[in-house]
TrEMBL record:
Membrane-crossing residue ranges in chain numbering: 319-344, 605-630, 642-661
Family note: Belongs to the glycosyltransferase 2 family.
Protein name in the entry: Bifunctional polysaccharide deacetylase/glycosyltransferase family 2 protein
UniProtKB keywords: Glycosyltransferase, Membrane, Transferase, Transmembrane, Transmembrane helix
Keyword Transmembrane: yes
Domain of life the protein comes from: Bacteria
Length: 730
């Protein structure tokens, strides 16, 4: 599960620019996803994982096969009109070595080396799957004078296939030869074929059809059975023709370990040459024109395009596999760190003797930036009024047009002030609030968030330690009853709880959430306050505080209840801004990597951690789901499902532990598997779109999310009016 980076939700009025970009936000990730799937599909096709048919026909009667074919030679010519066939034999003292199923990157070069060393030639019956992946070997075969024959593209038993599938196998195989060597061939060998006397009523119709398409069907006289790996002497014995007869010898240069085949050739070639045999191409042995025809024009370019696409798919898939391995390691490392460091953090802060240096009781200022928060602001203010810590409340109205400021003033609550300003954005509103704050500790929250009575007190206790410059609270989803709310609830508890504990111990807390955070005013002054340089002003200022040498810690009991987006559109807008803003903040503080002192320590520890686990890892995480889908469709299905459930189990363990630490009900975890399938994909696409925006130099403005004001703290007390006498006064 990709943890969110908490953001404030105070937004500017300008929405029109983003709306014009909506179609593009879906288009670019969709194009990339389609391209990725296309590459995987092509890779699966050329690896016989797609459209492959591994059935092999059982022997059948031979009543339909002409006697001349059954008793004839290993070359069957059925090209004549009417399907009349004749068989051809190899002249005496001629051997046509044939090699099936290649080319193979390991064994084919060694076979070619032996042939070249002995000035011998042969015929390579290549499959399209292998030839498309290793076109240079096909080119070498042709350049060194060997003949090429078709062995189909995917190596199916053609007796099971329709004529359209047979045509497809032939045309795709020819397409590969055109792209690899600029030729087409008239030679064909059926997969799983043997000698001519093995032709039967199921294979004979295929042979006739192949002949009608202009091909010579080539079987064999002697079968070395090298695929059985019987040993070099046995291979030589089975390959040797008797009594000086000519022969077509069947061998293999692919499909497994062919070291015995290479060793056998090393002995067989000179041995037979000493007996007066010549190793030649098939057409040379038959005294016929070459089987090769040069390809040009569109056919040539189509072949080259296909070979190029296969090469790209192989490279892309290789990168994806490396990426999948990397994300697997990152996911396990992150989960391991989260569990271990979260346990250590909880053990540390929950000890009875744990203290930040004394009880912090001084009054603080609570800043509430608000823009058109009429639905939520009253509940927000009343939750603060109920605080058990002395506070002043400063509501900064950022040019609201819905009467937000008037509503707060009409509440007539002492120690709650309204500061009005023209619409200038959240950072400006917060800086204005800081200027009007009376106390040296300022708490910041969103206008759609409610606090529990103890939230402020718990949030400011770490300031008893003078080294602490900021404190992150525990933001929780208030509207978790809907499915999308429940998914965000899991994300918040797991991401915020475990991640913040981990980052706390590592000393590189990346973000003080806009919904619930506190700052030492002196620390803010030293870093220049809230910056408008990024869309993630909370992440920006947190990183600035780290670089200035301040500690940033996590207060688990400072709970704030916020209203999460309730539609995919709103969720997209929010997370898009979060992701893009985080990237901006990382880029802004990149020089910390080479600086000295506290800035350098954060730059060399915090920035790599944040970049790796919050930007890079989530971007690579979709590979898990892409390969899951690929494995489910094309196999191995069992192992794929087991691996995916293994990852899900690890996530469930982490989520359950986070829920236990936060004392949350486990029932919401029922939706975790569905969250991984649906919700997480949306987060991936959002992050991808953020990357695209960053790389293309795009600009993104604030957007106002629609609020309903339904969130209240546990117990439903936030919307009730409280007597002012019960409020602590600052």
């Amino acid at each position: 599960m990709t943890p969110p980076v908490s953001r404030g939700r105070h937004n500017r009025k300008k929405k029109r620019t983003v709306r014009r970009r909506l179609p593009m936000r879906y288009l670019l990730p969709s194009v990339l996803l389609v391209a990725l799937l296309a590459m995987l599909m092509l890779r699966g096709y050329v690896h016989s994982e797609i459209l492959a048919d591994h059935r092999v026909q059982a022997p059948a009667p031979t009543t339909q096969v002409p006697d001349d074919v059954l008793e004839g030679g290993p070359v069957i010519d059925a090209r004549a009109a009417g399907g009349q066939a004749k068989s051809l034999r190899i002249p005496d003292h001629r051997i046509v070595l044939t090699f099936d199923d290649g080319p193979d990157p390991v064994w084919t070069p060694r076979v070619l080396d032996e042939l070249r060393k002995n000035r011998a030639h042969g015929v390579f019956f290549v499959t399209g799957t292998m030839a498309s992946r290793y076109p240079d070997l096909v080119k070498r075969m042709v350049d060194e004078g060997h003949e090429i024959g078709l062995h189909t593209f995917n190596h199916p038993d053609l007796s099971f296939q329709s004529t359209s599938r047979i045509d497809w196998e032939l045309s795709q195989n020819q397409l590969v030869l055109a792209g690899a060597a600029g030729i087409r061939t008239s030679l064909f060998r059926p997969p799983y074929s043997s000698s001519s006397d093995a032709m039967d009523d199921r294979s004979w119709p295929v042979t006739r059809y192949i002949g009608s398409r202009g091909y010579l069907t080539v079987v064999n006289n002697t079968d070395s059975e090298d695929w059985k790996r019987p040993g070099v002497p046995a291979i030589i014995e089975r390959a040797t023709p008797r009594n000086g007869k000519g022969a077509i010898v069947l061998m293999h240069d692919s499909g497994g370990d062919r070291s015995q085949t290479v060793a056998a050739l090393r002995e067989f070639l000179p041995q037979m040459q000493r007996q007066g045999y010549e190793f030649t191409n098939l057409t040379s042995a038959l005294g016929a024109p070459s089987a090769h025809t040069e390809v040009s024009g569109l056919a040539l370019w189509k072949g080259r395009a296909f070979i190029g696409a296969v090469e790209i798919s192989e490279r892309v898939t290789g990168v994806l596999v490396v990426g999948l391995a990397a994300i697997g390691v990152l996911v396990m490392v992150r989960f391991g760190l989260m569990l271990l460091l979260s346990f250590l953090h909880a053990r540390k802060v929950r000890r009875q003797d744990f203290s930040w240096g004394g009880r912090f009781t001084r009054p603080v200022s609570v800043l509430v930036p608000a823009y058109n928060e009429r639905e939520c602001i009253e509940a927000t203010v009343r939750s603060l009024v109920a605080s058990d810590h002395p506070i002043e409340v400063v509501v900064i109205d950022d040019g609201s047009t819905d009467g937000t400021a008037d509503l707060v003033e009409a509440m007539w609550i002492p120690n709650v002030r309204v500061v009005r300003q023209t619409n200038a954005g959240k950072p400006a509103a917060l800086n204005n609030g800081i200027a009007h704050a009376r106390h040296d500790i300022v708490v910041m929250m969103d206008g759609d968030t409610v606090f529990e009575p103890s939230t402020v007190r718990e949030l400011v206790q770490p300031f008893a330690d003078p080294r602490v410059g900021a404190v992150a609270g525990n933001a929780k989803v208030g509207n978790r009853d809907s499915l999308i709310g429940a998914w965000q609830h899991i994300e918040y508890v797991m991401g915020f709880n475990l991640d913040r504990r981990m980052y706390d111990l590592l000393g590189c807390m990346p973000t003080i959430p806009g919904a619930v955070g506190a700052f030492r005013r002196d620390a803010l002054d030293r870093v220049g306050g809230m910056s408008e340089d990024t869309l993630a002003e909370d992440t920006d200022v947190t990183m600035a505080l780290h670089r200035d040498g301040w500690r940033v810690v996590y207060a688990e009991n400072a709970r704030a209840w916020t209203e999460a987006p309730e539609s995919v559109q709103q969720l997209w807008s929010q997370r898009y801004r979060w992701s893009y803003g985080t990237m901006q903040a990382i880029w802004k503080h990149r020089r910390a990597v080479v600086e000295r002192g506290p800035s350098g320590r954060f730059g060399r520890v915090g920035l790599p951690f944040v970049s790796l686990f919050m930007v890079v890892a989530p971007l690579l995480a979709p590979l898990i789901d892409v390969f899951l889908l690929y494995g489910l469709v094309f196999g191995p299905t069992g192992k794929t499902v087991a691996a995916w459930f293994g990852v899900l189990l690890v996530q469930a363990v982490c989520a359950a532990y986070a829920f236990r630490l936060d004392r949350e009900r486990m029932t919401h975890l029922i939706s975790l598997p569905l969250q991984q399938i649906l919700y997480r994909q949306l987060m991936y696409v959002v992050l991808l779109q953020s990357w695209i925006t960053a790389l293309t130099g795009g600009r993104l403005r604030w957007q106002k999310l629609r609020r309903t004001g339904v969130v209240e703290a546990p117990g439903g007390t936030t919307n009730r009016r409280r007597e002012t006498e019960r409020r602590p006064v600052a």
